[in-house]
């Protein structure tokens, strides 16, 4: 297995960054996860556009030109022989003596890893996955895809310990913001697809954006609005979306079945359409 670190392809086990990298000390970095499906990058343009936005919001320069990053991503996937999996891209502000303020002239650190993955198991697809709900304890710039993921890590660990696949984070007003590494959706009793609008309170998922476009193309009624946990419990279907989970049926929330407790037809239709679109 190979990784990429600042201009070099290295055996994955030998790849390293300096102990004073600001990603390590301040989570002063951003990232993207891009799925490779059948040898093709899913939603690559969207992920590069969001990386550009994240970098801009944190006033960080591109570490290499976007066209070079595309080539590095392809080269790394090829060197690893990955046709179904993910590429992880991380940019930090770089290495500098520890100081909260930005260093004056430090080159960013660019790291890429790549791995094969099977995405979902047959069982997850046949039965759907379960989620728990937890308070959203994150900061108020969740729209930036930073490597500051401690709240999400705690949430996912809690989910795992509860035998669940994901944790949906809930703001103090009772509305679901999003999962720890995915966006959250429901289908109402009337058949309307609902997901929270993009704002500083969620990460605007690239898969989310593609699913919204696909749903509108298919003539499915869509509403971008917050929904509560109670509404999710009463929904006909629930689903989550992310790079790698695509559109994945959520069939239990806090131990209670959603609808009939089986993957819903609209979710499965969206998933198939998404995969046909990228694959
Ligand atoms: N996570 N919301 C959060 C908080 C996320 O971390 C992610 C993605 C998403 C979905 O975004 P997208 O559709 O662009 O993947 C929503 C990635 C997969 C991760 O951290 O591994």
Question: What does this entry look like structurally?
Answer:
- The protein is α+β, with helices and mostly antiparallel strands and 279 residues long.
- The protein has two domains: 2-116, Aminotransferase class 4, branched-chain amino acid transferase, N-terminal domain (D-amino Acid Aminotransferase, Chain A, domain 1, 2-Layer Sandwich), CATH 3.30.470; 122-278, D-amino Acid Aminotransferase, Chain A, domain 2, CATH 3.20.10.
- 29% of the residues lie in helices and 28% in strands.
- The chain has helices spanning 22-26, 44-57, 66-79, 122-127, 150-161, 206-217, 229-233, 265-278, and strands at residues 2-5, 8-11, 29-37, 40-41, 85-92, 109-116, 129-135, 166-170, 176-179, 183-187, 193-195, 222-224, 237-242, 246-253, 256-257.
- Strands 7, 8, 9, 10, 11, 12, 13, 14 and 15 form a nine-stranded mixed beta sheet that branches. Strands 2-1-6-5-3-4 form a six-stranded antiparallel beta sheet.
- Helix 6 (206-217) crosses helix 8 (265-278).
- It binds N-(5'-phosphopyridoxyl)-D-alanine.
- Residues 33, 178, 181-183, 203, 205-208, 241-244 line the site of N-(5'-phosphopyridoxyl)-D-alanine.
- N-(5'-phosphopyridoxyl)-D-alanine (PDD) binds at residues 33, 178, 181-183, 203, 205-208, 241-244.
The number of helical runs is 8
| Ions and ligands | N-(5'-phosphopyridoxyl)-D-alanine
CATH class of the largest domain: Alpha Beta
**CATH architecture designation of the largest domain:** Alpha-Beta Barrel
**What coarse outline follows from CA principal-axis ratios?**
globular
Radius of gyration (CA) equals 19 Å
Class of secondary structure makeup: alpha+beta
| Contiguous runs where pLDDT drops below 50 for at least 5 residues | none
The fraction of residues assigned to DSSP E strands is 25-35%
The run of helices and strands is EEHEEHHEEHEHEEEEHEHEEEH
Within CATH, the superfamily of the largest domain carries the name D-amino Acid Aminotransferase, subunit A, domain 2
Predict the CATH topology of the largest domain: D-amino Acid Aminotransferase, Chain A, domain 2
């Amino acid at each position: 297995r190979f990784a990429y670190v600042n201009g070099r392809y290295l055996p994955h086990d030998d790849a390293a960054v300096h102990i004073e990298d600001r990603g390590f000390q301040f989570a002063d970095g951003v990232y993207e996860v891009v799925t490779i499906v059948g040898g093709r990058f899913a939603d690559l343009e969207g992920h590069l556009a969001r990386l550009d936005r994240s970098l801009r919001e944190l006033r960080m320069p591109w570490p290499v030109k976007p066209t070079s990053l595309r080539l590095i991503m392809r080269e790394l996937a090829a060197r690893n022989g990955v046709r179904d999996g993910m590429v992880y891209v991380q940019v930090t502000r770089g290495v500098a003596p520890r100081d909260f303020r930005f260093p004056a002239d430090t080159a960013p650190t660019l790291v890429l890893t790549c791995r094969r993955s099977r995405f979902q198991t047959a069982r997850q697809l046949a039965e759907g996955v379960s989620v728990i709900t937890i308070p959203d304890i994150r900061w108020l710039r969740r729209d930036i895809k930073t490597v500051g993921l401690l709240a999400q890590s705690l949430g996912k660990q809690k989910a795992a310990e509860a035998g669940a696949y994901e944790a949906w984070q809930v703001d103090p007003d009772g509305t679901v913001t999003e999962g720890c590494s995915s966006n959250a959706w429901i289908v109402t009793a009337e058949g309307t697809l609902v997901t929270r609008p993009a704002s500083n309170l969620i990460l605007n998922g690239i898969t989310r954006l593609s699913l919204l476009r696909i749903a509108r193309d298919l003539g499915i009624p869509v509403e971008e609005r917050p929904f509560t946990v109670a509404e999710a419990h009463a929904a006909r279907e629930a689903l989550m979306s992310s790079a790698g989970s695509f559109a994945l049926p959520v069939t239990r929330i806090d131990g209670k079945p959603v609808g009939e407790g089986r993957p819903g037809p609209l979710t499965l239709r969206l998933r198939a359409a998404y995969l046909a679109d990228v694959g």
